[in-house]
Amino acid sequence: MPPAPKRPDPARRSERSRQAVLRATRELVAEVGYAKLSIEAIAARAGVGKQTIYRWWRSKGAVVFDAFLALSEEADGVVLPDTGDIEADLKAVLRATVAEFADPAFEAPIRALNLEIAGDPELAAQYRERLAAPVDEAKKERLRSAQRAGQIRADADLDLALELLYAPLYQRWLLRSAPLTPGYADALVDHLLRALRP
Amino acid sequence: MPPAPKRPDPARRSERSRQAVLRATRELVAEVGYAKLSIEAIAARAGVGKQTIYRWWRSKGAVVFDAFLALSEEADGVVLPDTGDIEADLKAVLRATVAEFADPAFEAPIRALNLEIAGDPELAAQYRERLAAPVDEAKKERLRSAQRAGQIRADADLDLALELLYAPLYQRWLLRSAPLTPGYADALVDHLLRALRP
C-alpha cells in the first residue's frame, strides 16, 4: 500500500499508539502470562486509555494475537529466500531463527504464548490457523521450488519436512535441553536434505 | 532387590500408601498444575496423613519427581527391544509412544509437567537429569547397536538422532497441531533412517 500523500498527524499518532499497545502486550504476556494479563495493564504500560484499546480490539485475545502477528511479520516476513540453492537458503533461515530465539526480548513472549496454547486446545487452533499456517505455507512454497528443481523428492511430505526441521529446534528451546547454535541449525538442514534426497 | 522373605503386613500397607500418593500426585498435577499442587491435597486424595508424605519425601518437588519417575518406569522401562532390525524395533517403540500419548490418563500429567518445566529452567534441568537422561541413554544404546550392525552411520550424532525421532512427535502432541497415528510413527522412523544411512 503506497503511503497516503500528506498523511495527517492524527493517523500517525494512532499508529504510534497501536504499536505501543502491541509492544506492551508482548512485554506483559512474557512478564505475567496470558491468564493474568489485563487490558488495564496494557493500557497503562502503553500510555493510552482503555477506551483506545477497546476501540481497536474487541477482546484481550484479539490484542494478543495482533501483538504476535506483528512480531512474526516483523521477524521473518512471509517469503523465504530462493537463490536456487535449497541448502544455503534453509541454513540462512534456520540460523536466523536460532538467533531470534537467543534474544530474550523475542523469546520470552513466545515462550509465554506457547505455554498458553499448550494448555488450551482452542487457543492452539487459533494459533495454528492465524499465526502458524501462513508462515508454514511460505516455508512449504520454498520446499516446492526445491522439488521442482529436483533437489528434494517429488513425493516428500512437506508438513513432515517442516517438523523435522523445526521441531527439534523448538524442543531444545522450550525445554532448554541443549544449546541452540548456528552449527545446530546447519546440522538440522543437512539431516533433512539427506532424508528427502531424490 | 529380592523380596524380603515373609514380608510383614505393615510394609505391604506402606507400599500401597506410597503408590496411592504417587497416583494422587499425578492426577492432581494434571488437574490443578504444579504451582497450585499442595501436600494437603495429595494426602487427602491418597487417603493418608500429611505426616506420612513428609516421612518419605522432603518436598512437593520430590513427590512429583517420584510420581513421574514411577510412571516412566512402568510405561517404557529402560531397555529398548533389540531384534537386530533397527527399523522394526524403532517403529515398535515409537508406535507405543504414540499410543501412550493418545491416553488422556497418561498424557494429562505429562502435559502439566511439560508446562512447568518449560517455564522453570531449574525444574527443566532436574527433569533432564533425573527423568530424560536415563531414558535417552537406553535409546542411544539401541542406536549404538545399530551402528555396530552397520545399519546407521558410525559417526551419526545420536542426540540429534533422538531429537529427529521424538521432537516432531512431541511438538504435534504439545501443540495438538496434527494427529498422532501409527503411520506417523513409521514415517518418522523411515525419515530418520534415511538421514542416518551409512
Give structural notes.
Two copies of one chain form a homodimer. With 198 residues, chain A is mainly alpha-helical. Chain A folds into two domains: 9-64, Arc Repressor Mutant, subunit A (Orthogonal Bundle), CATH 1.10.10; 77-196, Tetracycline Repressor, domain 2 (Orthogonal Bundle). Chain A has helices at residues 9-36, 39-46, 50-56, 60-76, 86-101, 104-118, 121-148, 158-175, 182-196. In chain A, helix 5 (86-101) runs antiparallel to helix 9 (182-196). The longest helix of chain A has 28 residues, at 9-36. The N and C termini of chain A lie far apart (41 Å). The model of chain A has no long low-confidence stretch (mean pLDDT 88).
The largest inter-chain interface, given as chain pair and residues per side, is:
A-B, 36 and 36 residues
Provide the gyration radius of chain A in Å. 19 Å
Q: Kindly identify the CATH topology of the largest domain in chain A.
A: Tetracycline Repressor, domain 2
Roughly what fraction of the amino acids of chain A lie in strands? under 5%
CATH architecture of the largest domain in chain A: Orthogonal Bundle
CATH class of the largest domain in chain A: Mainly Alpha
Question: So, the CATH homologous superfamily of the largest domain in chain A?
Answer: Tetracycline Repressor, domain 2
Distance between the termini of chain A: 41 Å
Q: What is the number of helices of chain A? A: 9
Q: What is the arithmetic mean of pLDDT of chain A?
A: 88
Question: Approximately how much helix is present in the residues of chain A?
Answer: over 70%
Regarding quaternary structure, how should these chains be classified?
Answer: homodimer
Largest sheet of chain A: none
Please tally the β strands of chain A and state the result.
0
Q: Which descriptor suits the 3D outline of chain A?
A: elongated
Estimated structural class of chain A? mainly alpha
- H/E element sequence of chain A: HHHHHHHHH
Protein name (chains A, B): TetR family transcriptional regulator
DNA-binding region (chains A, B): 38-57
Keywords (chains A, B): DNA-binding, Transcription, Transcription regulation
Domain HTH tetR-type (chains A, B): 15-75
